[in-house]
Amino acid sequence: MTQLMLQCLLPILIIAFGIVLSLLLIAWRRSQTLILIFTLTIFSVALLASFSLFVNLASDIQVTTLVKVDSYGLFAFMLVLIASIAVSLLSSTWLIHTTEVHDEFFILLQLVVLGAGILVISDHYAALFLGFELLSISLVGLVGYSRDSEFSVETSFKYLVLSACASSFMLLGIAFIYSYSGTLSFTDEPEILTNISNSDSSVGNVFFYRVGFLLFMVGIAFKLSLAPFHLWTPDVYQGAPTPVTLLLATVSKIAMFIVLMKFWFSQAIFVETKSSDENILFLMSIFAIASMLIGNTLALKQQNIKRLLAYSSIAHMGYLLIVLMVISPHSVELAWQSALFYLTAYVLATIAIFMTLQLTQYNHHNTELDVNDWQGMFWQNRSLALLIIVAILSLAGIPLTMGFIGKFYLLNVAVKAQQWWLISVLIIGSGIGLVYYLRIIFVLFSTAIKANNVNEKNNPKELLPLPLTLTPAMNFSVVIIIILSVLLGIFPDLLANFLVKPY
Amino acid sequence: MSITLVMCGLLFGGALAWLLEGIKPQSARWVSLLTVLVIGVYFAIALNSTAYDFSTLQLLVRVAWIPSFHIEYALALDYLSIVLISLTLFLALICVLVSWQEINDKVGFYYFNLLASIAGIVGVFTAVDMFLFFFFWEVMLLPITALIAIWGHEDRHFAAIKFFIFTQVSSLIMLVAIIAMSFIHYQQTGQLSFLYQDWLILDLPLSLTQYLMLGFFIAFAVKLPSVPVHSWLPDAHTQAPTAGSVLLAGVLLKTGAYGLIRFVLQLFPQASLNFAPVAATLGVVSILYGAKMAFAQQDLKRLVAYSSISHMGFVMLALFSFNIIAYQGAILTLVAHGLSSAALFALAGMIYSRIHSRDLNNMGGFWLNTPRMGGFALAFCAAAFGLPGLANFVAEFLSLLGAYQRYPILTIIAAFGLIGSAIYGMVLFQSVFHGKRQVKPQAINDLSARELLVFSSLLTLLIFIGLYPNSLLDFFQSENIKLVLNNTAGVTK
Amino acid sequence: MISALVELNPLQLTFYSAALLAIVASLKVVTSKNTVHALLYLVVSLLAVAVCFYLMGAPFAAGLEVIVYAGAILVLFVFAIMMFGLGQDETLHAPSVDGSKVNQFSLWFGPFLLALLLLIELVYAISSGEIQARLTANTIDAKQVGILLYGPYVLAVEIASFLLLAGLIGGYHYAKPEGVGLDRKNNLGEHG
Amino acid sequence: MTDNMLPLMTETVLAFLPFYPLISFVLLILLGKRLSWRLAASLSIAAMVLSALSSLFVISQLSVDIPVITSHLWTWFTLSLAEGANQTNQSAASININFYLDGLSAVMISVVTGVGLLIHIFAAAYMKADENFSRFMAYMNLFIVAMLILVLADNLVLLYLGWEGVGLCSFLLIGFWYQEKANVLAARKAFIVTRIGDTALAIGLFILFKELGQLTIVDITQNAQLLWVAGDDKAYWITLLLLGGAVGKSAQLPLQTWLPDAMAGPTPVSALIHAATMVTAGVYLIARMNGLFLLAPEVMNYVAWLGAATLLLAGIAALAQSDIKRVLAYSTMSQIGYMMLSLGAGAFSAGVFHLMTHAFFKALLFLTAGAIIVALHHQQSLFKMGGLLKRLPFETALFAVGLVCLMALPGSSGFFSKEAIIAQLWSSDTAGPLLWYCAIFGALLTSIYSCRLFFLAFMGESRFEQNLQPSSSKLLKFSLIALAVLSLIGGVFANIIEMSLAEVFPLDTRIVESDPYWLHSVAIATPFVGIIFSWFYFASYRSKESAASNKNTFIASSSGIATFCRQGLAFDSFYHWLLVKPYCYLAQLNRRDVFDQLLMLNAWYVGLCHDVLKSSQTGKLRWYAAAIGLATFLLLLVLSVDVISTEAS
Amino acid sequence: MIAIPLSHILILASTLFVIGFVGVITRKNTLFILMSLEVMLNAVGVAFIGAGSAWQQADGQVMFILILTLAAAEVALGLALLIQMQRRFKSLDIDLLSKLKG
After folding, report:
1. Could you tell me which chains touch chain D, where touching means 3 or more CB pairs under 8 A?
2. Minimal CB count within 10 Å: which of A38, B92, B208, D250?
C-alpha cells in the first residue's frame, strides 16, 4: 500500500471512518440532529475528497488486486454522495415524525454509501461481491426501517430473501466463471489463455462460460431491476420510506451499473479475443428490450407514484443497457460518457421527484400518494410543480432537459453500434412512457377536482391540503435543481467535459 | 437581422405577460399583442434592411454550442423560411386576438405558452444545425401540448397525449436518422457535424439514404399529417382551444412540409425520387380520405381538421412531383391553407363561444342573426374548396398542374378531391348558416369588432394572394430552386 | 455403473458418499415438516460438505464449515426456534390447505420441475466444458489462505467487517423491542 | 391623337367592363340592410347599365379590321416550365388576367349585360318586399361579374375562375331562401353536381398544359392545330374532359339532374342564371374551344348525341311536370340540348345564335312565370292554375310570345335559330340524319309540352280560388315588354351574328345540296303538328268540364310512366342509389376513422399487456423467487439453443 | 491426494443449489426459507472451493470465507425480521406478506 493508493482510497476511507466515528458518537450522545449533521459532514468531506481526487487523478490506479480507482468510478461515487446527501436531508424531514432516535438509520446510510463506493471502484469479483452484499444488507435494514409502517416487514423480507437469492445466483455464476478462467479479477489475463494452450477450445467451453455469465447477470439484473428480474421493484419501492426509495433508485442503481460496465468492458474485450460475443450481446439485448417494454408497459396505468417510478426505473435501466452494446473498443469511452451523463440526468430527476413526493406526503399525511394527489399543484405551488415537470420531462427525454441529452448520448452509442432493434424498442418504449409521464404533468395542471371540492367544504376529508409553504432552504434547493437540469440540458458540455478521461 | 432576437423577444414577451398578470389581470393580452406586433414590425424592418440575397440559404448566426458533438447554434434564412415565419407571426396575431375573450383562466400562462410555441416554431423554420432543428422541433411541442391539455375541451388530456406521442415517437426516428447522418459525416470527413450545409455535400450511398430519408420522412409525414398517421390531428384540433387549433393548423402542420422541402428532398434527392411514387400515393390518399372523412363528421372542428389533412395531401403530392410548378403550388398551399384553416378554426371558436357546442346538429340558420359571420364563413369555405380568386385555388391548381406532369393518373384521382372538398365545404357552410334556425335568436350575436378584424384581415390576404399570387411566387422563381429541382430531376435521367 | 464404483479408490468413494449424503440431507431440509428436524438435517448436510471440502484439498475451509456454519450460524437458528417455540409443524403457523395430496402435489410439482430443468441445464453446461480433469487436488492449507487473505485481500477483510456490522445494526434495529431507543427527551415529553 | 386614343380607351373600357357590378356588389354587401330599396336597386341597376353601355361601346369598336380587342390587367401567375417539357420553346407560360373580346364574346357579353340588365330591372321590382333585397341584388351583381369574366377570359384558368364564380353565385341564389330545407339541398346539389363537371374541366386543363404548355385560348387553338391532326388521341381526351365541364354547367346528360331542383331559387335567378346565361356557359366553352373540338370529330359526335339525348329526355320529362317552373327548366335543358347538338354538328354559329335567342325568350318565359306566380300567391302548380287567360291577360300575352318563340313558330326569333340548327344537321359529318330526326322529334315534343303548359295554365276553368295580386310595377312591365320585343324580333340579329362569328368559327364548307328537299318543310311543319296534336289530346285541360273529369285526368297523370317522366326519367334516384348512398354509407361506416382505430389498437394492446403484466405482480414472495428461477431457466435455454445452432453450422 | 473431477464438484454444487432454491420457492414457513438460503450459499461455497483447488489457488477459499461472512450477516438480519414478523403477524407464513402488489 503506497501513499498514492491510500490517497486514492481516501473518499472510501473517509466514509469508513465516518461509520466508526458515528458509532462512537452514538456511544457519546444520542441525538438526531447531531448524527444528521455528522453524516452530512462525512458525505461532504468525502465529496470534496473525491472531487479533488477526480481533478488530480493522472491515471487509473490499481489498489491491491481488488480495486482500481479511475475517474469514471470517482464521478459515479460523487453522484452517489450527492444522492446520499439528498437522502439524508429528506430523511431528516421524515424522521422527526416518529419519536425514536434514528442513529441506526444514518449508520446504515453510510454503510450503503460505503458499499456503493466499493462497487464503483471494484476490479475484482470479491470486491464486487462484498460491495454488493454490503449494499444489500444495509438496504435490507433501511427498507423496513419505519417499523410502525404496515409494510415494514413485508418490504424488508422481500428484499432480503430475493436479494439473497439473487446474490446466490450471482455467486454461483462467479464460481462458474472462476472455474473456467482461473482468475477472480476483471482485468487480469484469464488463466485459461495463459496456462492452458488449448487453442482448439470447443464451443461448449464457451457455453460453460456463458452459463456462468448468465448466472452472474441474474444478480446484477436483480439489483438493477432489469426485466425479467424486476418483480420485486415496485413492492419494495412502495413499502420503503420515501428517502430509502430514493436511495434504492439512485445509489444502488448507480453503483450496480458502474460495476456492471467495469465488468462488461473488461469482459467484452476478453470475450472478443474468443471472437464470439454474439450470444452474450444477444442476452444483453434481451435484458434491455424486455426492461424497456415491460417497465414502460407496467407503468402505463399505475396510480401510485412510487410504484410508477419503480416501473419507470426498470425502463430506464433498460435504456441504459444500450451503452453496453458497443462493438469496437473505440466506442468504450463514448459509452462511459453516455452512461454517466444519463445516470446524472436520471439521478437528478429522481431526486427531484422524490423530494417533491416526500414534501407532499408530509403535507397529505399519507404515505400512499396517488398521482391524483398532485392535482392542480401548478396553481398552488409553482416552483415545486415546475420541479416535477422538469424532472418528468427529463425522464421522458424531452429537450430542454438533461434527460434529452442523455437519450441523445444513448442513441449515439446505439447508432454507432448499429443496434437498430434496440433503437426501435427504445422509441416504442419512450412512446409508451410518454403516456404516464404526461399524465402526471397534466394532473399538475388540472383543476377539475378542486372545483368540486369547493362545493363540499363541509367534508374535511375531501379538502385539499393547504398549499405547501416551503422553507427558504427547500425553495432554494428546488430552484437549484430546476436550473441545473435545464442548464445542463441546454449546455451539456458543462458536464460532458468532466466525463472525458483527462489521460 | 437577428432571428435570435425574434425568438427571445417572443419568449420575453410571454414571460412578461405571465408575470404582469399577477399585477394587473387584463395586461397579459395587451402585452402579448404588443409583443407580437413589435416583433412582426421588427422582422419586417430587419428583412428590408439586410443586404442578403435570400434566394439561397443565408447563414445568419453560427456559434459553437455543444463542442463535444460539434453541435452549433446555426440559424439561416431563405425565402421559404421568411414566408413561413411571416405566416407564423401573422397567425400569432390572429391567435392572440381570437383568444382575447375565449381564455379567462390563467390568462398569463396561456399567453406565455402561446408565444413560447411561436418562438419555437420560428426556431424550427430557421435552424440549420440539425440538432438545433430537432431541439426546436421538440421544444415547440411542449407549449402547444400545454395549450391543448390545459385550455382544451372535454377530452383534452387524451388528445394532448395522443398528439404528443405521435410527434414524439416519429421525431425520435428522425433523431436516429440525424445521428446516423452525423456519423456518416464523421466517417467521411473525420469529424462529427450536424450542420445542414455540411450534409448537403456528403456523398451518400443510396442503400443507406433510403433508410435515412425514411427516418426524416416519417417525422414530417406525421406532422404534415399524411394518411395513415394523421389520426392525432382530428383529436388535437378538436380538443384544442381556438388559438391552439389555429396554431396547429396554420403553422404547425407547415413545419412538416417545411421539413420535407428543406431536408428530405434536398438531402436525399435520389432516395426521395425513388420513394416519390409511394409518397405521392400517400398524398393522394390523404386528399381523398381527408375529404371523405371531413364529410362524415358531425363535429365542426373535426370537420375542419380532416379538411386540413386533405389539403396537406396536396402538398405531399406536389412536393414529390419534382416539378417547379408543383413546388410553387406546394408553398402556396402552405400559406393559403394556413390562412383559410386558421380562419375556419377561428370561426369554429366563435361559434363555440356563442352556443357552446361544436356539433353541427345544434347549428343551422345562423345567417339570420349573423349575416356578417355567414359571409365570411362562406368566403372561407369557398377558400377551403378552392374557389378561384382565393389563394387556395391557385395553390391547388399549381400543385395539381405540376403533379400532373409527373403522375397523370394519380393527379386525376387526386382531382376528385376537388369534388370531395366541395361536398364538405357545402355541408359545413350549410349546416351552420342555412336551414331552420336551431337556437334562440338572442343567443347569437354577429361578429364583434375584434372578430371582424380577424376575419377581414384573413380574407384580405386570401383574396390578395388569390388574385396576385406572384407576390409570393416571385420569390420562388429564382434560378436556385430550379437548380435544386433540376438536380433532382437530373438524377432521374 | 457398478464397475465404475469398484474402480473408485477409497478417497473418491468417500467423496461421493459424502456428496450423496449432503444432497439427501439437503433434500430433507427443504421437505421436512418439523423445524428442528430440518435444522438437524442441515447440520448433517453441512458436515457432509465439510468432508467434501477436506477431500478437495481445503482443510481450512472444512474446519470453518464445521465451526462457523454448523457451529455458529445454526446456533442462531436454534435460538430463534427456541425463542418462538417453533418446534412444531409449519402447518400450525401457516394456514393449511386441507393437507390433501393433490394440493401437496400441485404445490411441489411446478417448482420441482423448474428446479429439475434448471439443474439439467447447469449439468449440461458443466459437462460441456473442458474442465473435467483439471483438479489436481493438492492441499491448499490454511497458511496459503492466510497469506492471501491478509495480502491482496486485506481490503476484503475490512469490508467484510463492515458487512457484519451492517448485519448487526440491521438485526438490532429489527429485533429490538418496541420503544427501545426512544429519544429520552421525547420520551419524557408529551409524546411519552 | 384620337387614332391612338381610341384603342387605348377601348381597352380601358373593356378592362373595367366587368367590374362595375363588382363595385356595386361590394357596396351592397358592406352596407347591407342599411340601404333603402330605392338606393340598392338603383345602385345595382346602375352598375348593370354601365356594364351594358360599356359592352355596347366595345362591341361597336369591333370591325373587320379589328376583329379582336384585348385588355391586359395584370399577370395572375406564371407557370415555369422544365426544359424540354413541351414542344414549344418558351420557359414560362404566364396566366394573365386578360380580357379578350372577339365576335363570340361580343355576343355573349351583349346577352349577359343586356338580358342581365332587364332581369335586374325585373328583379328590383319582383324582390322589393324581401327583407334581404340588397343581398339578393348583390348576388345578382356578383353573378354578372363572374359571368362576364367567364366570357371575356383570354385563358382557360381565368375562364375557370368565372366558371366557378357563376357556380358559387348559382349556389347562393338557389339557396337564397335558406330557411327552407329543400332550397338548401337544391343549392348543394347544384353546386356539387356542377363541381363534378368542373373537376373534369380542371383535369382537361392539366392535360392541355402538359401537352401544349399553354393555357391561353388563342395559343392553344393555334398550337393544337399546328401539332395535332384531326383524330389525335390527346385532343380526344382533352375535349372529352372539356365536354365533361360543359355538360355539368349546361345541365346536359348525364349531369342534368341539378337544374330542375335549382328552380327553388327566386324566379329572376331562374331566368338569369338557369335559363339565359350560366347554363349556356358550357355551350360557350365548346364554341370557344372549337379549334380543339374540330380536331376530335369523335367528341363532336358525342356532343351531338349528348345534346340530342338531353333534348329528348328533357322534352319527355317536361311533358309530365306539374310545376310551371320545372316545365321551363326542362325546356331549358332541352333547348341547350339543341345548342349542343348544333355545336356537335359543327354548326357553331347556329348554336350561338340559338343561345342568344333562347336567352331572350326563356328569360321572358321565366319572368312572366314569375309574375304569374306572384300573382297567384306563390302557387307554382299548373294544376292549381287554369283560366288565367282572362284573369291575367297581359301576362298571358307575354307568355304566349315566349311560347311561340320556344316552339319556333315561323317569324319568331326561335324559329330562325332553331331552323338554322336543324338545317345543318342532316349533312353534317359529325351529326347526320338520325340526329336530324331526333331534333325534329324534339321540336314536336317542345310544341306539345308548350301547349300543355299553356292549356293548363291559361285556359280551361280557373282552379285558383283566391284573389289574384298582379303586380303593377312599371319596372316589371317594362322589362317584360322589352324582353318580349327582343324575343320576337331576335331573328333580325341573325345576320349580324353570322358576320361577327365568321372570324371566330371556321367557314362552313359543307355542301348543303345533298339535303333532301323536304327537310325544311318538315322542320317548319313540326311545331304545328304538335299544336294540333295537343289541341286534341289535351282537350280536357282547356275545356270547362266538370271538376270530376279533370280530377281523373290528373290522377292518371300520376300513373307509373308519368311519375317516371316527372322525375326526369328517374336519373335522380339512379344517382342517389349509385353515388350518393354509397358515399354517405362509406362515410358513416368509417366515421370513426379506420386508421385511427388501427393505431389505437396498439394503445389497446399495450393496455392489455399492462393488465397481463400487472397480474404478474402478485406480491407473493415465493412467486417472485420462482420467477427468478424461471427467468434464469428460460434465458439459459435461449443461450443453449443458440449454441446448438452455432454448433450445427 | 486423488483428483476428483471438477465437473463432479460443480454438479454437486449445482444440485445443492437447486435443492436450496426449491426450498425457497416452495416452503411457506419463513424459517425454512432462511434455511434454504443457507443451503444455497453453502452450495456456492462448494463451487468456489472446487474451482479454487482446481486452479491451485487459495482464492476459492478466501471467497468461501467471505461467503461465510455474508451467510452470518444474512441470518442475523433474517432472524431479526423473523422476530418482527412473529410479533406482528403471530405467524411465519410468508404468504401473509403480500399486501404490496399491482
Report:
1. A, B, C, E
2. B208
Same domain, D380 and D528: yes
Cell of D482: 322589352
The grid coordinates listed for C19 are: 456428496
Q: Does A33 touch chain C (CB under 8 A)?
A: no
Residues 6+ positions from D439 with CB-CB distance below 8 Å: D308, D311, D338, D341, D421, D422, D425
- Cβ count within 10 A of residue D517: 6
Boundaries of domain holding D215? 2-557
Contact flag A66-C155 (C-beta cutoff 8 Å): yes
What is the per-residue DSSP string for B189-244?
HSS---BHHHHHT----HHHHHHHHHHHHHHHHHHTT-TTS-THHHHHHHHS-HHH
- Check if the beta carbon of residue A66 is closer than 8 Å to that of residue E66: no
Q: Which residues of chain B from 292 to 351 reach within 8 Å of chain D, CB to CB? A: 292-293, 295-297, 323-325, 328
B179/A411 CB distance under 8 A: yes
* Shortest CA gap E1–chain D (Å): 35
Q: Which domain range does residue A488 map to?
A: 309-503
Pairing of strands A61-63, A67-69: antiparallel
3-state helix, strand, coil in chain C (%, to 5): 75, 0, 25
Q: Kindly report the pTM of this predicted structure.
A: 0.89
Residue reference for cell 396537406: B312
**D275 and D424 belong to one structural domain:** yes
- Whether chain D has a CB inside 8 Å of the CB on A153: the answer is no
- Evaluate whether D413 touches D360 at the Cβ level (below 8 Å): yes
C121/D629 CB distance under 8 A: no
Q: Could you read off the pLDDT of C25-39 as tens digits, one per residue?
A: 998 888 888 888 888
Domain count, chain A: 1
Task: Give A465's DSSP letter.
Answer: P
The DSSP line for D569-635 is: TTHHHHHIIIIIHHHHHHHHHTTT-HHHHHHHHHHHHHHHHHHHHHHH----HHHHHHHHHHHHHHH
Fold of E8-90: Helix Hairpins (1.10.287)
Residue C49 CA to residue E13 CA, distance in Å, equals 10
Q: Which residues from chain B sit within 8 angstroms of residue D595, using beta carbons? A: 227-231, 289
What is the per-residue pLDDT across B418-467, written as a single tens digit (0 to 9) for each? Answer: 888 888 888 888 888 887 776 665 667 777 888 888 889 999 988 898 88
User: Could you say which residues from 599 to 638 on chain D have a Cβ atom under 8 Å away from some Cβ of chain C?
Assistant: 626, 629-630, 632-633, 636-637
HSE (side-chain half, CA atoms, 13 Å) at D143:
34
| Domain presence at residue D19 | yes
Below-70 pLDDT ranges, chain D: 1-4, 81-91, 464-465, 507-515, 540-560, 562, 568, 642-649
Q: What is the ipTM of this complex?
A: 0.88
